[in-house]
Amino acid sequence: MARGLDLSAEELDRALRVVSEAIRGWSERIASLDPAGTAHDPASQGVRTDWRPPFAPGPPPEEGEDLGELVRRVVADFAPDAQVVGHPGFLGYAAGAGNLVSALGQALAMALNPYTGTMSTAPAFVRIEDEVIRWFCAITGYPPEAGGILTSGSSLAILSAVIAARERARAPWEKARCYASDQAHHAVGKALFAAGFRPENLVVLASRDGRMDSVALAERVRRDRAAGLVPVLVVGTAGTTNAGRVDPLGAIADVCEESGAWFHCDAAYGGFFRLLPEIGALRGMERADSISLDPHKSFSMPYGTGALLARRVADLRFPRGLDASYMPPVRDEDLRYEYGEISPELSRDFRGLRVWLAIRAFGLGAFRENLRAKRRQALWLAEEIRRKSRLELVTEPDLSILTFRVRDDPDGAATRALLARINSGGRFFLTSAVLGGRFVIRVCLLGFRTTDELLEEFGDVVNL
Ligand SMILES: Cc1ncc(COP(=O)(O)O)c(C=O)c1O
To answer: pLDDT band for position 110 (50/70/90)?
Structure first.
């Protein structure tokens, strides 16, 4: 590569060609790859013990190397051992396939390199991001004055929500109580810890059939208040990680309104299913004080794209605490555009462009129809599994996740063996969970490349 850090027009052309050919080659080959990645060990579900990194770490080169060769190595030597999340047969975790318009939008965002931590530094780009936030608010049923921030993912969205809840309650530490079901994502526990809470501040409620028991929640909150404790926060999950269950959101909202606790709805996986009005279980989400969403799951965005929405944007404001005379002034009426004020980040990735471009280029209908198809596929597969005498459907899909196991398999050994067999076949990749003490195989349908025909093939594979 050339001396200095700038590129001549010819060098830029060549660099663009190199990267565009790499992306094109990858997307043409994606269906022929092993979705599990070559480093995966189906038996342990971890990395193979004989896996070796394709290079030994060393000092950075003093002189530049050839970009074409570097990109070739990335795609040929490093990429194959990673799990191929966009593969048609990738049915693990809660992984969206990551659309390529957004990938290209990200390259554009980084080439433009605007500073979106404050409104005055890039007002039109900040409006682009704000339009995305407004679209997400409309999808979840929030009123027009609601707002929020695009984050790296739901973990940081939940952290901001926990801090907002803590600040609203201002309860003495030892009296503060935060409630979540045993199916809530562990990001909730991490966020509580990062926000200064201790394990004794968290009340973990036993779930019923994978969902929060709202009667037990109401009872526990009532008892805690009677004992002088302060209900600070309740986290309800719209689409649990293990089984895709949706907590009773309306009943949780009732408890929060009555007790004054902040209601955070963790809709990391399930939130975008609000695009399907036929799914009644998601009603009540709009009553939450805040909602975490992961466009990189059910909205087919690349990783690193999460969102936090809040009914009242001012609740997200971080006091500066220190003089910041080097910062442009912030007008209260512009708070929704001042991402450096309403999130812990200041300098930040311009996440809005990749989402905005994809929604505009594909149309929202394409995202809605993808989720409708995934739900239909999940219901079809659940029915197929129910019909197979060797298998037991453990949970039906509330949205697009279902779980199953091998029948009469008390220690889970046959179910583990089935999972290992599927994951070593090179066509499908699935993950597992433990539900009610039983090992289950999870299927999560989100990827837009997963066709009905492929799913029929999957139905045959599980039945062997
Ligand atoms: C329900 C739920 N909440 C939160 C998270 C954490 O989100 P992220 O990985 O985007 O930080 C996940 C998944 O990773 C999840 O499934």
So the answer is: very high
